[in-house]
Amino acid sequence: MIDHKAEPVDTQNTNKRRKWQAARGPVARFARLLRARLIVPTLRGVHTPEHTARAVGIGLAVALTPTSGIQMSAVVGIWLMLRKLKPAWDFNLLVALAWTWVTNPVTIPPLYYLYIVTGRVLLGRWEKLRGYETFERRITETLAEDTGLLKSLWIFSVNLFEKFGVPILVGSLPWIALGTWLGYRWSFKLMQRIYEARKRRHAAVNAAKAFHDGQLQDGSVRNKN
Question: How many CB atoms lie within 10 A of CB 77?
Fold first, then answer.
């Protein structure tokens, strides 16, 4: 005899699982995007840990400035200037460009609002701020304009400076310093581990190859004898 009472329970569990998967869908896609744009280019760096860590630090330093829309151009300008004036401070341009995408249409609203609040606190200005929802809606409306992503970001940055120029600039400074330092330290330690692992792997491969070549030479000598 078939028990039909279990079917509604299975259906309910399936619906819950589908809702959970739908809810985590955007988060998972955003996580995959960050991995593809930030982590993978960093891990693929073939230079020294310092070279890659400088790229992450500079990319984050520029990304955390309230200058959305011109950040990639700023990184290229810094790269060209350092290669001309201070070659010892060279960095991986592609990695630095990738890390400018830390600020994007998803992260800009809370980040810039944090800058404004921080700036007002540091300046001792306790005027009442508009709610975050209003601030986020203004950003969304600007980004929705049919002007292209980078141009709309730049237009929004200009408008933001006109309204919150000093507070947003002052408020961004401590977060820029903190983010740059954390990014540099994290990427340096990560790349140092990867760099040492590559050295050990290459040493093991070379040792195995030398041992194999030695075995072949010993065999050829015995055959001659």
Answer: 12
Closest CA to 75 of 48, 51, 57, 49: 57
DSSP per-residue string spanning 12-67: HHHHHHHHHHHHHHHHHHHHHHHIIIIIHHHHT--S-HHHHHHHHHHHHHHHTSS-
Residue 96's closest CA among 151, 65, 67, 53?
Answer: 53
**Number of other residues whose CB lies within 10 A of the CB of residue 113:** 20
Position of tokens 């330690």?
189
Residue entry with tokens 């830390």:
102
SS (H, E, C) 159-182: HHHHHHHHHHHHHHHHHHHHHHHH
> What does the alpha-carbon distance between residue 19 and residue 93 come to, in Å, rounded to a whole number?
41
pLDDT tens string, the chain, 225 residues long: the values are 445 444 454 555 555 555 545 545 655 665 665 566 566 666 665 668 888 899 999 999 999 998 887 889 999 999 999 989 998 888 988 889 989 988 887 888 889 889 988 988 888 876 656 677 777 776 666 655 555 666 666 676 777 776 777 888 899 999 999 999 999 999 999 888 887 877 777 777 777 777 666 665 665 656 655
